[in-house]
Write a structure and sequence with these properties.
It is a single chain. By secondary structure, this protein is of the alpha/beta class. The protein has three domains: 202 residues, P-loop containing nucleotide triphosphate hydrolases (Rossmann fold, 3-Layer(aba) Sandwich), CATH 3.40.50.300; 70 residues, Helicase, Ruva Protein, domain 3 (Orthogonal Bundle), CATH 1.10.8; 72 residues, Arc Repressor Mutant, subunit A, CATH 1.10.10. It contains 16 helices and nine strands. Bound molecules: adenosine-5'-triphosphate (ATP) and magnesium ion (MG).
């Protein structure tokens, strides 16, 4: 039997829970062509959310095409354009023939190459090295959504996952300027840009002197609430003929601080261990401990990559410390001088270990790591 919990993959259909408000907001924005930026720490469900809205819209509204591009693996501008063109043409065509004729129709000047893989039956568009020298081609690809919108008579929503990656390109600012100058002229297209590097994304979208300042609505995606988890976990157990009390469902969510990925992962372990019909407290505890055990090698590696002060800083964060520059805290955690704190914060942020929430509250991003560093490492 398939397990009723999934993690590390997009959550869809019966695996997707709640997010009613977010789905509604995004659907409205897409329908009204309002640009939207979604920010959350890793593994909180951005991709699943956008995918959900995209699926719902394509069922309900034939006047809209939603195109999803993941630029996680794009290290250069050229790779961005290739991924972008591929995603757009794949969304707007249904079969190989349609894809090939669209490539010819829209991009023939860019000497495109289309290849098909026999094994996976997928096809890919690529460009020769000339792309780099032919600046015109960039414009052509960036305007492709608007051209497709005009040709198909549909509105187009372009969703770009891991958008912060554009900061790794050779000249990110020039690239942002170029994107914006094209995108702001598009009238039948809107953009949904999302990623997990909160500070990088806020720099792009919230700094007055940056090209994307006030480009669209910014949505800070939250975790899934405890109540929703309880309903979801209870139902998924029941669907597969197993019983878990609401109290234990809440316990699972609490242990993982409602973190979407980890809550599902712990659920899976608990579900697998529930061999009779009824889940017990002991099962939840054993599953949690075993999961932390599995992760501890990974966490040890993280610790090995840090300086003693950086580790102390994380310990202070794990303890819920608020005022890091106070003398008491500096001494208790041996953090050095208060001038150090800024660097410690920056390093932890860059390593994705902490998140700074509104009100300057600092939190460890990973609830399992938080438990481990407090209870096992110490
Ligand atoms: N709406 C949801 N309902 C249930 N589980 C969810 C939901 N959204 C996310 N999850 C859980 O969280 C995991 C991560 O989701 P997803 O990949 O969408 O997050 P992400 O924010 O895009 O992550 P990353 O920043 O790593 O790209 C999923 O595999 C699933 O276990
Ligand atoms: Mg994602």
């Amino acid at each position: 039997m398939d397990t009723p919990f999934i993690y590390g993959r997009i959550a869809d259909k019966e695996n997707f829970t709640n997010r009613v408000n977010e789905v509604e907001l995004l659907t409205q924005n897409f329908n009204s062509l309002i640009n939207t930026i979604i920010i959350s720490p890793r593994r909180w469900g951005k991709t699943s959310l956008v995918n959900r809205v995209s699926n719902l819209l394509s069922e309900k509204n034939k006047e809209i095409l939603v195109c999803q591009v993941d630029i996680f693996n794009c290290r250069t501008e050229e790779q961005f354009y290739t991924a972008y063109a591929n995603a757009l043409l794949k969304t707007s065509t249904t079969a190989w023939e349609g894809f090939v004729s669209s490539v010819k129709k829209y991009l023939s000047r860019l000497a495109p190459i289309v290849s098909i893989s026999d094994a996976s039956q997928t096809y890919e568009l690529s460009f020769g090295v000339e792309l780099k020298d032919n600046k015109l081609s960039y414009d052509e690809i960036l305007d492709l959504p608007e051209v497709l919108a005009a040709d198909t008579g549909k509105k187009i929503v372009v969703c770009i996952d891991e958008f912060q990656n554009i900061n790794e390109y050779d000249n990110p600012l020039a690239f942002q300027r170029k994107l914006r100058s094209h995108w702001q002229r598009h009238t039948s297209v809107c953009y949904c840009l999302y990623g997990s590097k909160r500070h990088m994304l806020l720099d792009i979208f919230n700094s007055y002197n940056m090209p994307f300042y006030k480009f669209g609505d910014i949505l800070f995606l939250q975790k899934i609430s405890r109540e929703e988890w309880i309903k979801f976990i209870f139902k998924r157990f029941a669907d597969t003929g197993k019983y878990i009390s609401e109290e234990l469902c809440g316990e699972i969510a609490d242990k993982m601080k409602n973190h979407p990925y980890y809550t599902q992962q712990l659920c899976q372990q608990v579900w697998l261990r529930t061999t009779s019909e009824k889940c017990t407290n002991e099962i939840v505890t054993a599953a949690f401990e075993s999961l932390i055990g599995q992760l501890s090698l990974l966490f040890t590696n993280i610790i090995d990559s840090l300086t003693p002060k950086q580790i102390n800083f994380l310990l202070a964060v794990a303890d819920g410390t608020v005022n890091f520059s106070s003398k008491e805290v500096l001494t208790k955690y041996q953090l050095g001088t208060s001038a150090n704190i800024k660097n410690l914060k920056k390093a932890a942020l860059e390593k994705d270990l902490i998140d700074i929430l509104p009100g300057n509250v600092i939190e460890l991003q990973d609830p399992a790591f938080e438990y481990w560093i407090k209870n096992i490492y110490k």
